[in-house]
Amino acid sequence: MNHIKLIKSEQDHEQALARLMALMEMDPEPNSIESDEIDVLAVLIEKYEEEAFPIDMPNPIEAIKFRMDQQGLTNKDLVAYIGSAPKVSEVLNGKRNLSLNMIRRLSEGLGISADVLIRSPEQKNACESEIDWYAFPLSEMRKRGYFEGFNGSLLELKEYAAEQITAFLSSVSSGFNLKPALLRSSAHLRSNDKEVDPYALWAWQVRVLQKANEEKLPANYKQGTVNLEWMQKLVSLSWSAQGASLAVEFLNKHGIHLITEQHLPKTYLDGAVCVKSDGNPVIALTLRHDRLDSFWFSLMHELAHLALHLDGNETWYLDDLDALGGSEVEQEADALAQEALIPSDLWKKKCLIDAESVRVLSEELEISPCIVAGRARHETGNHSMFGSLFRDKVRQHF
């Protein structure tokens, strides 16, 4: 057997081909030295050619047209796979991208490999995923502009749901890690006995992270910043008519995002808190109840989770504050929130029987009277207390 070496250049390739041709003309006996040399050379030549002369995957449109020619199909025959005559024309003329649904139908119906038809990373990821794309609240997400750059109809969105949702989830680093299967173990969800829509919750969380990523904070969060004294300092801003707006600035200066995002149907959320991968906390409020006292309690409750329970990981606390009781963790957060708003020793001494007593206590604490009245209404269960007084709205500040 001649000396055989790896093929590293075009010259090596030509010499190997010449030697292979010479050996094949000899027509050697099986298992002979020459026959074994043929086998080795064939492997080396094939390996070199695969690396030096890679064969490009055919263009998806070319692949479809080739199969049409093979099977004698017309544009009309593709309607069953692509959806309508205009869509068939647009796809074949390169004016419309194939959706994952179209790819699956073409692959199954015409026998074209999905690998040939898939071109974008989003489609490849979506194809490999077992996510139920239609379980997301597509209509509401479209209405709120969750899909950047998409201006199509709801019908169009459903056709391209896999691609649009994949792009949406991929827009934040932990987007896919929030999937419903992980919610029960990686997040703490406080809610009533109502059935929560996990896909709506997932979409809301991603949207919150998108908004947080768009913000540039003036400082980074320092572990241990949030404690009772710090929370009380924040609550004192409620004494101002612009207290809610001032709270945003205060939190941002301490490396904390405050995001407002309306809850999606069947999520029943008031607020949530997590820590982003960069170490900065995100507090998200839905302002589901458009009341100043609800804003301040929700904010304090999420801050209490940050002070007591978040350890720097990307765990979420998701809260429906209408829910009664709750776990020990939630009761701890409630207690710290209440203490930050109105010290318990002072609260126990007061008897709020009229509007004047509310004003006196709020002036003593230098906090919004809405916080005082809200606490009284909540603890007595009498939500008509003080009539129309102390019911300031909060959404106008955001």
TrEMBL record:
Superkingdom of the organism of origin: Bacteria
Domain HTH cro/C1-type, first and last residues per copy: 64-117
GO molecular function, one term: core promoter sequence-specific DNA binding
InterPro entries the UniProt entry points to: Antitox_HigA, Cro/C1-type_HTH, IrrE_HExxH, Lambda_DNA-bd_dom_sf
Alphabetical list of PROSITE patterns matching this protein: HTH_CROC1
Residues spanning the membrane: none
SUPFAM superfamilies assigned to the protein according to its UniProt record, in alphabetical order: lambda repressor-like DNA-binding domains (SSF47413)
Biological processes per GO annotation: regulation of DNA-templated transcription
PANTHER family listed in its UniProt record: ANTITOXIN HIGA
Family: Belongs to the short-chain fatty acyl-CoA assimilation regulator (ScfR) family.
Protein name according to UniProt: ImmA/IrrE family metallo-endopeptidase
